[in-house]
Amino acid sequence: MQSYPGVQALVRRTHEERVLQVLREQGALSRNQIARAIGLSRTTLSEITGSLLQRGAIVVTDTDAAHREGSGRPAERLALDPASGQFMGVDFGHRRVHVVVADASHEIVASGSDRYADHVDWPTRLDVAFRLVERLSDQYGVHYGALQGVGIGIPGPYSGKPGVRDYPSHRSAADGFHEASVDEAFGERFGAPVIVDNNTRLAALAEAIFGEKAIENLLYVRLSDGVGGGLVVGGRLVSGSAGLAGELGHVTVTADGSPCRCGKNGCLETIASVPAILAACRAAGLPVESLDDLAAAIARSHPLADRVLRDAAAAVGRVLAAVAMALNPSEIVIGGEITRLAPVIVQQASATVAYESFPSTPSPDVRATRLAAHAADVRAAHLADDDGALGALAAVFHSSPLLAGYPETPAPTGAGPRAAMPPRQTRGVADGRHQ
Amino acid sequence: MQSYPGVQALVRRTHEERVLQVLREQGALSRNQIARAIGLSRTTLSEITGSLLQRGAIVVTDTDAAHREGSGRPAERLALDPASGQFMGVDFGHRRVHVVVADASHEIVASGSDRYADHVDWPTRLDVAFRLVERLSDQYGVHYGALQGVGIGIPGPYSGKPGVRDYPSHRSAADGFHEASVDEAFGERFGAPVIVDNNTRLAALAEAIFGEKAIENLLYVRLSDGVGGGLVVGGRLVSGSAGLAGELGHVTVTADGSPCRCGKNGCLETIASVPAILAACRAAGLPVESLDDLAAAIARSHPLADRVLRDAAAAVGRVLAAVAMALNPSEIVIGGEITRLAPVIVQQASATVAYESFPSTPSPDVRATRLAAHAADVRAAHLADDDGALGALAAVFHSSPLLAGYPETPAPTGAGPRAAMPPRQTRGVADGRHQ
């Protein structure tokens, strides 16, 4: 085959981009893992990683001794140069902001949270967040000069397309808050691209990504002041046609149930939100005013608490099972602080989903048998309060421009390949895909 | 900027591939539409289309006079050379096989269907299908020498990843049928790549694609002998973790309902399948044995038929609304012959979905108001019995290799760019994405 130096350089450059992308998305990996992930031969890959190591774009972090099964010589793990950039995930909850900062090798280098008053206005929340960011800088010795991107979770529906800077609608006339405000405030402060999305959805993404292996199809529900959810389908976070996907809290469970704030009756939120569960306990004669009270009742194995929680969890299970019939996820995750206090919630929801997925008797129906064999696992969330911030970080890791700021080895024909590349993005986030 | 002929040729080649891809996926388009779709300037695009026209890869089919709004000079519409290839969509129903053949400009050049006995074995179905294909060849003067791909819909769950030739499981020990059989039989017969998927899912894809504009997020349910469904999320057909997505028929609607063949009680299928609806009519005192009988009762505005149909449709609406809360689709489509006979089904399901999505009173909840404003449109399927075959065709259009069989203008540096391209696929389908 004839040699075409310009083309070869372009091909090599493409390979480099793919290596860097997989490391940005997945953190430290062995050469074998990288070769498998992007479908290159070990030989070709070694050339590519050799060049990237030499130029300092990637580094050897450790060996896979701690991660591997079986025997054999431990292999080196490679990662992006940790110093090559930082990534920030921020989650604005109703009462608290969380911030996590990671380096380019996916190591969390700083994290913290700070409270603000319930339903305080957005300028105040931003102020608390920026002071927290400053404090983390002092505390952990982190400087934000190399910040490559910021992911931000906000409560409530987010109708802007994630990652796109064109915000079609206002959040709420009541507090004068504009969705673009958060984005712009962070963008101006750090000069880095910003992604904004609903924080429950980002928590779903975090649960899909920060496990032993990434989950391609996952359904997530969070029981909190309200009930929200998120879906990962085919490895991508689902937004829906108007950015409103994941509203599991307003699926009707009992048509003649209690009135919901949305105007319907018997929505899942009227049964399985924390306030609804506490109210149901009180109605049953158990005087609980807070999650702490409920935790104490659970610790005493109080049968009223158990009954109320099982009823709520069965309702959650029925809604999850219906959506799982449509989507066939491999995992269903239930999050929220109450899930950690009351393991019975996941137990009962899991039993309900299993019943709804499995035929109760061996079935003559091939389809039912298949569904039974592939029913989703139901589990409690692995992550805790920083799930939204970690999800925001994951969203950024999956959408950042690559190779920015690295010296290139001169291509044999000069700057040829460069001329063929699109102009590098230095601000604004690629395409909003969270994959 | 310095000139690098090899690289420039590669860039041009990439642009050509994108132009051909958008034409393959969307059929005839004006130059402006192509430029918008792939983000090229009109000037660059004109160079690309000029070269493709000159080489015969694309042709001018007509003008957009029939499609455009407003005044102005009609623009030419370009399409792939119709003679450059054919694409076949096949749908194996329970009692009938449908075949459609299109040329590369998306023009349907042949279509037909043939019956076989209910639940006949697969070798017989294949035999009927191949004879139909031969007959269409004679009837329409179609020769299959340029067949570029075959899409095939089969009833029941399809657990192979669409487009991937590795079939992990057998279909059913009972009839000795292996899912790979259909694929292999067509592949051997026509020497073309084959895609197989569940035919209800393919119908969902067809409804999403063959409308005035493509729908990115669509939820589809079909009421027939059973109840099945399909989902398009973010422009992609959803398979789920085990290829079982879309099983809307086995969502529980009434926990104390009639036994379902799956082993549960009160599944949607026990209420809204055609046999279930006929049985409910009979139980209510209306002696109907077939869809024809039911159609006659509907024509007489029989109140019992109306009541049974409304009850069934309300159940369909509740299931659709629950899944729509999770996915936020812009359209919900109800298919199946009974939907055409009984418009009340779509009317009632639409009313139920609207109620479940809209708060019944102006709501203080921003989220509810948003959801209300973005509730999905519920409509009857546009397509009829050939929907599965058309969906199979759509799946093929979206996954075929491009530029096959076209002469290239020699690149300035010789065969340079070619050396950089991956080997062209002549068999086996790209990546299973239906996007």
Automatic annotation (TrEMBL), chains A, B:
<protein>
    <submittedName>
        <fullName>ROK family transcriptional regulator</fullName>
    </submittedName>
</protein>
<feature type="compositionally biased region" description="Low complexity">
    <location>
        <begin position="407"/>
        <end position="423"/>
    </location>
</feature>
<dbReference type="InterPro" id="IPR043129">
    <property type="entry name" value="ATPase_NBD"/>
</dbReference>
<dbReference type="InterPro" id="IPR000600">
    <property type="entry name" value="ROK"/>
</dbReference>
<feature type="region of interest" description="Disordered">
    <location>
        <begin position="407"/>
        <end position="435"/>
    </location>
</feature>
<dbReference type="InterPro" id="IPR036390">
    <property type="entry name" value="WH_DNA-bd_sf"/>
</dbReference>
<dbReference type="InterPro" id="IPR036388">
    <property type="entry name" value="WH-like_DNA-bd_sf"/>
</dbReference>
<dbReference type="Pfam" id="PF00480">
    <property type="entry name" value="ROK"/>
</dbReference>
<dbReference type="Pfam" id="PF13412">
    <property type="entry name" value="HTH_24"/>
</dbReference>
<dbReference type="InterPro" id="IPR049874">
    <property type="entry name" value="ROK_cs"/>
</dbReference>
<comment type="similarity">
    <text>Belongs to the ROK (NagC/XylR) family.</text>
</comment>
